[in-house]
Amino acid sequence: MPKINEIFFDCDNTLVLSEELAFEACADLANEILAKRDYRDRYTGEQLIQDFVGQNFRGMMVSLQAKYKFDMSKEELEEYVKKEEDEVIKKLEAKAQPCIGVTAELEKLKQSGKYAMAVVSSSALRRVLASIRKVGQDKYFEEKHVFSAASSLDKPTSKPDPAIYLHALEVCRRRADEVVAVEDSKSGALSAIRANIPVIGYVGSYNGVDKQMEMAKSLKDLGAKVIMKDWAEFEQCLQEIEAL
Questions:
Q1: How many Cβ atoms sit within 10 Å of the Cβ of residue 104?
Q2: Residue 147's beta-bridge partner residues?
Q3: What's the CATH number for 6-17+97-242?
Q4: Which of 24, 126, 154, 181 could form a disulfide with 45, with the two C-beta atoms 3.0–4.6 Å apart?
Q5: pTM for the full predicted model
């Protein structure tokens, strides 16, 4: 296998503990959309995470329309996408925290000089930048190497579509076998795997041992090369992939 020379990091709940904050805002808007159409169902942030984790808001709205069998106009969808972005960013700028142990690993990677680093996310670019700035991780990533499936592509999409990873490879001038992706969700892992990028499946942000074990099995079954429960294991996980 060629030498690994770049690490692609997912953002939400991989670098920054942002999913719960984001899903609180998303649930409010999803409930508003359902209420407008006289549906009685309502989501909490937690329920939304269970149904749609790993998707960006646009992807969630597509799934919501399919689940409840209604159509949103393009104009309404765009209005809500913008509204969601603003609401989530407010929450992130107020409360976002880094994932436990990740910043120390980013610092080690930067000091070693062995690997380039990029962020590859489904979330809107403004949101990703707000997240990493809030927790002081922006110094590890050039802004031109922060990629968003919602903002960086000619046609917005969401993981598990591999388009954002293929775009990141092209911009960073890497082959898939020169890169490792770190992902915490099934849709994120699948996006990288479909782009032929080896994946470290990170489960440390899930609450409770049972949920971590369940996700570890899911990510492994999808094709993640190794599972990482704690960022302290990152170096070892990377060595395992490099030894393949």
A1: 13
A2: 120
A3: 3.40.50.1000
A4: 24
A5: 0.87
- The whole-angstrom separation of Cα 216 and Cα 152 is 29
Contact 11, 128 (CB under 8 A): yes
- Asked if 22 and 92 count as a contact pair (C-beta separation under 8 A), the reply is yes
Whole-number Cα distances in Å, 83 to 26, 29, 86, 87, 93: 10, 8, 5, 6, 16
Tell me the per-residue pLDDT of 196-222, one tens digit each, with 9 for 90 and over.
999 999 999 999 999 999 999 999 999
Whether the CB-CB separation of 242 and 235 falls below 8 Å is answered with no
Predicted pLDDT at 2? 67
Smallest Cα–Cα separation from 191: which of 158, 239, 220?
Answer: 158
How far does CA 78 lie from the centroid of its chain?
21
Query: Two tokens at 87?
Result: 């609401």
Question: What is the rounded distance in angstroms from the CA atom of residue 38 to the CA atom of residue 27?
Answer: 16
